[in-house]
# Entry
Amino acid sequence: MTREVKILLSEEEIPRAWYNVQADMPNPLKPPLHPATKQPLSPEDLQAIFPMDLIKQEASTTRWIDIPDEVREIYRLYRPTPLVRARRLEKALQTPAKIYFKNEGVSPAGSHKLNTAIAQAYYNKKAGVKRLATETGAGQWGTALSMACQFFGLECTVYMVKVSYHQKPYRRSLMEIFGANVIPSPSNTTNAGRSVLAQDPDSQGSLGIAISEAVEDAVSSDSVNYALGSVLNHVLLHQSIIGLETKAQLEKAGEKADIVIGCCGGGSNFGGFCAPFVSEKVNDPSSIKLIAVEPTACPTLTRGKLAYDFGDTAGLTPLIYMHTLGRNFMPPGIHAGGLRYHGDAPILCQLVADNIIDPIAYNQTKIFEAAILFARSEGIVPAPESAHAVACAIDEALACREADQQKTIVFNLSGHGHFDLAAYDKFLAGKIKDYPLPEDVLEKSLAELPEI
Ligand SMILES: *Cc1c(COP(=O)(O)O)cnc(C)c1O
# Structure
């Protein structure tokens, strides 16, 4: 049993292959469908916006996929990330449980999103692409992709949800430092943006609208591709590096995880974090608990419908089989911007349907309380997204205190909250409200699901 606080791996121990959980899922995924024909998508359909290497990864069921040397070289800037024993938090909670967190906040982009941004920029560069277009909500994905594009000499256009563009100007600065062109969405530069503005000139935008704009931009030219920061299978594949390192670190510490926790927006950080623990759960359901935590204001996994839906608002993307709140769902102004997407990763949705992953939803006030306790114990201010995982880890640790059980709880700290201080200010001033989703709003939104 280790006495260490930080469980570290050397640069040589950065994994050499990503792990593809599709190889070990009890049930296969339903194929994405073409938005017009509603027939299963062919690889050629995706070639307008993605390079072939990523299209192949998207459909692959091969268990291990080599990480290119060029990608591993850049991973060395911040990987392996530390696994940290939260001893001071354990003490504050007076729990017999052991709490570990994987700190993806040490990435120079501030979150896990760089893990896939680097890989996506690499494969696009290799395919001869000149520019990537993407959307960003709170700005973390845009920051990560801007940095990755800079590393590989690609141009980058980021459609940033307008409300965040104005609320988080420093996120924009960061993207511009890394050379990106940042456009507030909805914008006048695309048909999708213009049609939203024609109906509502004051639209503050949404992730769904920004995706429509970025996809339209990418389709319009051969030298431009699109990049998505979450949801898709290849994104979860790249994020498996988080779980692989965590597993190796737990082994090094002589520990075995009993409870694995992550926050869930589009599902990429949790999907990658829990992937290497899935086969254990499949083989022995009582051996481990995998918990995905989402906001009550955008309760995709806990209250959404498992159905085919578009990934964007305009209906330009393929139809994806996932838990969805409906593509026109407008999440209220919660501060975990990265958790406001109407859908979720098909891999996670299938694992939820198969009872491998347990979803749970938390209120905003609860996650900020947890974040403050964590910050005051461990000295790290978590991103509001990551604070959902913190809150769940605390609940599980308190349950261990009640039951006098010494379980090992491991959660993913997906990012730091240094750009979310305005939200923390609001919380400290008692101005953070909860937004549980009313049933009639959900029903209305689900009534607009496409017919398949
Ligand atoms: C984007 C983001 C999330 C949510 O996205 P997932 O795809 O669900 O991981 C969570 N945490 C942080 C810090 C983020 O930036």
The chain has a mean pLDDT of 96. The chain has 18 helices and 15 strands. The pocket of pyridoxal-5'-phosphate is lined by residues 111, 113, 140-141, 230, 263-269, 338-339, 383, 385-386, 414-415 (CB under 6 Å).
